[in-house]
Structure formats: structure tokens, C-alpha cells
């Protein structure tokens, strides 16, 4: 062992001397290549020293944050522009939009300084941003001039705002999602044409079978006498929204006609809709393989270029070039400055398994994947109570308490308590038993926190990565304070306990990709406001205005739209537009909205807007999401650990630096306390090292150098996986928070909606800094 150590020491000294020949600019360029390979960036930047420095500044996390802030402000202007939720003067919204466009322009100029000029103007994304900025400026000038002269105008450039989010450098996940949609479109169009042909044929059959039988609907309207109306009704039947209403007149006339509708539902609703999903999924997998191949090729090229900058000759001519440990260390310091020296030494030991003091190209190209493996560094600390009162903390009763807390049954018991508490939430609060039980539950939750703090070292319990420990403690303490201060708030905060049971799924996701469906929503909302604003009016409860009976539009007198009190389903502002589009996505009763909104613009062709939204959102994008989800879970269950991750785990075990995975619980704190703070007999037990390492879960590391791991990376950065996280975790927390606030301040619902999106933006920005 001493000879090996001496050999490594001499190699390190020789490498330190040779590293002095490496210039700072070369090291920065090599670090940039490795960083791009690590994060799968594919920007053809100029390799000159000045361009590299500008490129490093371009990728700074603070600038990413500012880009997201300006995009959010630009998109949020729809809240304050006519038709506005909160009206602001034209000069105010124009000034804010002008500042945002100026920021985007500065960002583009910065980007133009980074990459070669010919490449910059050949990139469609850059041209698209330049065109959007120019069109927005033109639209602002035209609208302001017409507004000053007292004429109305259409803000047609607002539909272009979401495209900025798609085309900026930070939006590569969004572009990947839309690229998947674009690749699947040709095959989808073929199936869609067959589907439309089927609907047309069935509509023609319905007209011939039922058109001359003088049947009427429940409203007294003629039944299946107009071919276009039949097409529309049968198209809605595919979504089952008007079933069985659409078939009842024919079914009441003769049971024989039910066969027609049964065949239609089997062929169009179940067969064609399933074929849509199959086509989307098949094309998604087909083009995913090619994208993975390109990513692997680009990553390897970057790493090879970095190796050529750092390489040196060892052992004379004819030997393969290598990278010394000193140069590798300097490289990693620049690529990942946050990791500790012990962590760097551990990673080097994985690559230099022969203890030669240098590595070849085959080992070097694994650097990006190795840095992507999340390794958690822990410091072994004794519990403060063990230092202050060792006699009490080390006694048999104390050890028994700590073993109980560390046992899996302890978690199950408190999960059961939370479920019982959830049942009590739905009971009558006026019952003394229910109101007193709340204090009992709070006491049990506080006891759980105290027992965990007694068992686990406090600094480890409240470590940065221990989100659920922070979450539990903050919520329980808040609920206790709220119960004491305001009994009215208590019933709302009690929901938090149930939310604590839900943990995020084991998928590392990118929140930014959530914006993919919102881009579609935003565009259709802008178009809908220009088409339908002011056509339907909503009157507050208690209003005596006679126009309330027909939603402020005489054309809706006696309509199902007005009778069902759908007046608030309108395009009078961006919030109402988003809610209406969401209702169309769910497709329940959407045919009523489709029937009435076209009437308000006096032309039946307005139905095209709603049908087009259903085709784009429900048939195409939702199926793309389902394909994402299916492939994500298939890969999650099929892809095992990479060879590199396995090598790292073995190296940690060889160096006796591993944090033991406690069989009762896989959490990091439990594992650390099991190994380091076990209060059993310490005699004969070897002293543990000060620093301990633990590999994070497989789903949280994108470390595999194989194609499968890159498939997993692409899938996990898709919008679908964030849908899972968003629905299971984030919406639960925020929804219950809104419930608690709205319980007291119901009139401020708009501000809570704004707060909701501000918090969503915060998570997007925080993820961009990783």
C-alpha cells in the first residue's frame, strides 16, 4: 500500500509540474465542453477566449433567472390589458412590454457575441425571436396610434408571446416536447383523416335513416335533419359528452336504431381514439431513438475536444495521451465548484482504478456522467444530548426509544394516525369530540417531531436535502399556532397533515416543461378573447338586471347555456378564458358551450375555433402526454443502474465511506443515524470516518452513459412527468394553502391565483439554477 501511495504522490507531483503548461483559457474551454456535455447543451459557441468568457456569463444562473422573470412578466401582461382582469393604463402595460422586449434583445445580442455570426443567422430559433420582437414592436405602435385616435384595434401580437418561451435557449425541454408533436403529426393526420371519413359516413347514414322520420329533440328542435349539425353531434359523441342524449329520440322511436349508435361508439370512440394513442406512442419511440443517438454523439464529441485540450504524454513517444490528476482536479473545480475535495478524490478513485495517477480517453469521457451522479456528503456528528447528558442518552430506555423511532412500524403508525385525522376533518366541527380530537392529533404530531429530534442529530434532521422533515415541522408548528390563535383557521390547516403522507414520485423532473400545454392554452385564450370578448356577460348573485336571464346577449334567450347558468364561461378576460379552455379539455358538457358561443358571433363557422382546440389539445397533446408517461414508467422499471454508478458505489464501499441503508427506512437521516449514532456497546467497534457518502436514488441521477439513461433523461424532462409531480405533490400543497387563505379572505381570489403562478415561477427558476 505504501508503494502505491508513493507512486500516486510522485505522479501527482509530476502532473502538477506539467499542469503549469496548461493556460487558463484552455482550461476554461475544456471546462465549458465538459459542462455542456454534462447538461446536454448543444450550442456551437466560438472557441476564442473572449467568446468562451461571454459564453460562461451567458450560462450564468442569475441570467437564466432574469430571462424567466421577464418572460413571466411579458405573459402576465394579459391580466392587465383589455379585456383586463385588473385594468392598467395603456402607457403602463406598453412600458412593461417594452422593457421585456429590450431585455430579450439584449439577451439575443449577447448570444450573437457567443456563437459565429453565420451560425447565429442560420438558426431558426434566433430568427423566430427577432421576428417576434419586431412584430410586437410594430403592433405596439399601431395599437397605441389607433388608441390615441379613438379607434379600436386587435392586439394580434399577443399570441406570439408564448413562442418566446419556446425559442429561448433555456426552453430546450419545451422544444423537445413540440418536436415530438411535430414528428408524430404526419401519422396522426393519416389516422385523423380516416376518423373524419368515418364520422362523415356515419353522419350520412344517420341523415338517411332518421332525417325524414319527423323526430324532435327534448327542446322541440328537428332531429338529425341537417347534415352539418349531424356531423357536429356525432363528433361530440366521440367524447361521450352528449351520450345518451343524442341517441334518445331515435332509441325512443325504435330500439333497432340503438345498433347504429353502438357501432359508431365502438368504431370511433374506442377504436380510433385508441389508434391515435398507439400511433403517437409508436412515433414517439421511433424518433426518440434518433434523438438519443444524436445526444450521445454530441456529448462524446464535446468530451473528446476537452480531452484533446488537457491531454499530455506520459512515458515517452508512442504512448497514448492521458490526463493527469492535477489537471483533472482543476477541471472539476471549474465545472463543479460546489463539490468538496473529498468528493473529487472519490470520483478520481473511480476513474483511476489502477492508481496510475492519470487516466486515458476511455475513462475521461465518463466525467460528465460521473458528475451527474448525485453523491450526498455527510459529516458524522454525535447527538448533542449524548455530549450533554451521556448517562441518560446512553441508557437502555433511551436506546429503546431510538430503536422504536427508527423502526418501520413507527412510520406506519403515524401514517394511520394521519388517515384517521383525515376522517375527522370531514366530521362536524361543532361536536365536542371532534374539536377535542384535533388537539389530540396535534399533540401526537408534535410528539412525532420531538421523538425524531431526540433520535436523530438535529443538523442532519434539518439538512438541506431533508425536505419532508422541514415540511412536517413547519406545517405542524403552523397548525398548532393557528389552532391557538384562530379556531376558524384551524379547519383549513388540518388538511396539511393529510398532504404530508403524499411524497413526490421517484422521477427527477424539470418544471419548465410544464409550460408546454400552457403555451397552447395561452395562444387559444388570446384568440378567443379577440373573437368572443363581451359577447357573454356574467352578473353577480343578487343582480336584478333582466339581462341576467340570457347572459347579457338576447341571442341566448331560452338557451341551455343560459338555463344551466354558464354565463361565467366566457372570454372576457384571460383568467375566464383559461378556465373555459380547461372545461373544454375535460369535455364534460363542452357541446353546450360549443353550441352557444358560435351563436354569439352570429356565424356557425365559429365552431371551428372550439373544434380545433379539441383536436389540438385533447386528441394530439393529451395523447403525447400519455405516451410520455408510458415510456417514462417503462424506462423507470426496465433501466437498471449504470456501470459507472455501480463502480462508484463499490468504490465507496471499498473505502469504508458508505452510509448504510437501514432496512427499516431508506431515508438518509435514518441511515446515517443507524451507522454513526447507534448507542449500543462501542467497545470493539472501529471508529467511523468523519465524511460519509451516499448515492442518491437512481431516479434523481442522470448518470448512465448508455443510451437507456439518455432516454430516461429525455423522458424525465418532458411535460408528462411534471404532470405527475404537479398533480400529486405541488397542487395538493398549494390547493390546501389556498383553501386556508380563502376561508378568511374570499374576496381576494385573484391575488391568490397570482400568488400561485408566482410560486410556480419560483420553482421553475430554482430548477434552472441546478
UniProtKB/TrEMBL annotation:
It comes from the Eukaryota. GO terms for cellular component: membrane. The chain crosses the membrane at residues 62-80, 86-106, 127-148, 188-211, 223-241, 253-281, 409-427, 439-455, 467-489, 509-529, 608-630, 710-737, 749-765. GO terms for molecular function: monoatomic ion channel activity. Residues 61-287, 407-485, 519-634 form the Ion transport domain. Signal peptide: none annotated. The keyword Membrane applies. The keyword Transmembrane helix applies. This is Ion transport domain-containing protein. It comes from Pygocentrus nattereri. The lineage of its organism: Eukaryota, Metazoa, Chordata, Craniata, Vertebrata.
Amino acid at each position: 500500500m505504501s508503494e502505491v501511495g508513493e507512486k500516486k504522490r510522485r505522479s501527482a507531483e509530476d502532473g502538477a509540474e506539467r499542469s503549469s503548461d496548461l493556460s487558463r483559457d484552455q482550461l476554461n474551454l475544456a471546462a465549458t465542453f465538459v459542462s455542456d456535455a454534462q447538461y446536454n447543451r448543444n450550442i456551437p459557441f466560438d472557441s476564442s477566449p473572449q467568446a468562451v468568457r461571454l459564453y460562461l456569463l451567458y450560462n450564468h444562473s442569475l441570467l437564466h433567472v432574469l430571462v424567466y422573470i421577464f418572460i413571466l412578466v411579458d405573459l402576465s401582461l394579459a391580466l392587465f390589458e383589455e379585456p383586463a382582469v385588473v385594468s392598467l393604463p395603456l402607457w403602463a402595460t406598453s412600458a412593461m412590454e417594452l422593457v421585456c422586449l429590450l431585455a430579450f434583445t439584449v439577451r439575443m445580442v449577447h448570444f450573437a457575441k457567443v456563437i459565429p455570426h453565420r451560425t447565429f443567422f442560420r438558426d431558426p430559433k434566433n430568427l423566430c425571436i427577432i421576428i417576434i420582437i419586431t412584430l410586437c414592436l410594430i403592433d405596439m405602435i399601431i395599437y397605441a396610434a389607433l388608441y390615441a385616435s379613438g379607434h379600436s384595434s386587435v392586439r394580434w401580437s399577443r399570441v406570439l408571446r408564448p413562442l418566446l418561451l419556446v425559442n429561448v435557449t433555456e426552453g430546450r425541454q419545451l422544444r423537445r416536447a413540440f418536436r415530438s408533436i411535430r414528428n408524430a403529426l404526419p401519422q396522426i393526420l393519416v389516422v385523423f383523416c380516416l376518423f373524419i371519413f368515418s364520422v362523415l359516413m356515419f353522419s350520412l347514414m344517420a341523415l338517411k335513416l332518421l332525417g325524414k322520420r319527423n323526430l324532435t329533440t327534448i327542446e322541440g328542435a328537428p332531429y338529425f335533419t341537417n347534415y352539418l349539425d349531424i356531423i357536429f353531434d356525432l363528433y361530440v359523441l366521440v367524447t361521450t359528452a352528449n351520450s345518451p342524449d343524442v341517441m334518445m329520440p331515435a332509441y325512443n322511436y325504435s330500439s333497432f336504431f340503438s345498433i347504429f349508435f353502438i357501432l359508431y361508439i365502438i368504431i370511433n370512440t374506442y377504436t380510433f381514439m385508441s389508434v391515435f394513442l398507439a400511433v403517437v406512442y409508436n412515433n414517439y419511440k421511433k424518433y426518440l431513438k434518433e434523438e438519443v443517438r444524436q445526444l450521445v454523439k454530441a456529448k462524446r464529441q464535446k468530451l473528446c475536444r476537452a480531452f484533446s485540450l488537457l491531454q499530455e504524454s506520459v512515458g515517452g513517444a508512442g504512448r497514448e495521451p492521458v490526463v493527469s490528476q492535477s489537471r483533472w482536479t482543476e477541471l472539476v473545480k471549474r465545472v463543479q465548484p460546489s463539490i468538496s475535495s473529498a468528493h473529487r478524490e472519490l470520483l478520481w478513485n473511480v476513474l483511476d482504478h489502477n492508481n496510475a495517477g492519470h487516466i486515458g480517453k476511455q475513462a475521461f469521457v465518463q466525467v460528465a456522467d460521473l458528475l451527474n451522479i448525485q453523491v450526498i456528503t455527510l459529516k458524522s456528528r454525535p447527538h448533542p444530548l449524548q455530549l450533554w447528558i451521556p448517562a441518560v442518552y446512553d441508557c437502555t430506555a433511551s436506546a429503546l426509544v431510538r430503536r422504536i423511532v427508527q423502526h418501520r412500524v413507527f412510520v406506519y403508525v403515524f401514517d394511520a394516525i394521519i388517515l384517521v385525522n383525515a376522517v375527522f376533518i370531514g366530521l362536524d366541527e361543532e361536536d365536542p369530540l371532534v374539536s377535542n380530537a384535533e388537539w389530540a392529533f396535534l399533540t401526537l404530531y408534535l410528539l412525532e417531531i420531538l421523538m425524531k429530534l431526540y433520535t436523530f442529530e438535529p443538523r442532519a434532521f434539518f439538512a438541506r436535502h431533508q425536505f419532508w422533515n422541514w415540511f412536517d415541522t413547519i406545517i405542524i408548528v403552523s397548525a398548532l399556532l393557528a389552532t391557538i390563535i384562530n379556531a376558524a383557521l384551524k379547519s383549513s390547516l388540518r388538511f396539511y397533515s393529510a398532504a404530508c403522507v403524499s411524497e413526490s414520485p421517484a422521477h427527477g423532473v424539470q418544471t419548465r416543461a410544464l409550460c408546454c400545454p400552457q403555451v397552447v392554452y395561452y395562444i387559444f385564450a388570446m384568440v378567443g378573447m379577440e373573437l368572443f370578448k363581451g359577447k357573454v356577460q356574467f352578473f353577480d348573485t343578487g343582480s336584478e338586471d333582466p339581462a341576467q336571464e340570457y347572459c347579457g346577449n338576447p341571442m341566448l334567450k331560452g338557451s341551455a347555456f343560459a338555463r344551466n347558468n354558464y354565463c361565467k364561461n366566457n372570454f372576457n378576460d384571460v383568467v375566464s378564458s383559461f378556465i373555459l379552455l380547461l372545461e373544454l379539455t375535460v369535455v364534460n358538457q363542452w357541446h353546450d358551450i360549443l353550441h352557444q358561443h358560435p351563436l354569439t358571433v352570429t356565424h356557425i363557422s365559429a365552431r371551428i375555433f372550439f373544434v380545433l382546440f379539441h383536436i389540438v389539445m385533447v386528441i394530439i397533446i393529451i395523447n403525447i402526454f400519455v405516451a410520455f408517461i408510458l415510456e417514462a414508467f417503462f424506462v423507470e422499471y426496465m433501466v437498471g443502474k449504470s456501470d459507472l454508478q455501480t463502480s462508484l458505489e463499490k468504490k465507496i464501499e471499498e473505502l469504508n465511506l458508505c452510509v448504510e441503508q437501514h432496512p427499516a427506512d431508506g431515508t438518509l437521516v435514518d441511515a446515517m443515524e443507524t451507522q454513526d449514532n447507534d448507542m449500543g456497546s462501542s467497545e470493539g467497534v472501529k471508529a467511523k470516518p468523519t465524511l460519509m457518502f451516499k448515492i442518491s436514488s437512481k431516479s434523481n441521477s442522470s448518470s448512465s452513459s448508455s443510451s437507456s439513461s439518455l432516454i430516461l433523461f429525455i423522458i424525465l424532462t418532458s411535460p408528462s412527468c411534471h404532470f405527475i409531480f404537479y398533480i400529486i405533490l405541488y397542487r395538493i400543497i398549494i390547493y390546501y394553502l389556498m383553501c386556508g387563505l380563502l376561508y378568511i379572505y374570499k374576496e381576494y381570489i385573484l391575488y391568490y391565483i397570482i400568488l400561485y403562478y408566482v410560486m410556480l415561477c419560483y420553482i421553475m427558476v430554482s430548477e434552472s439554477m441546478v
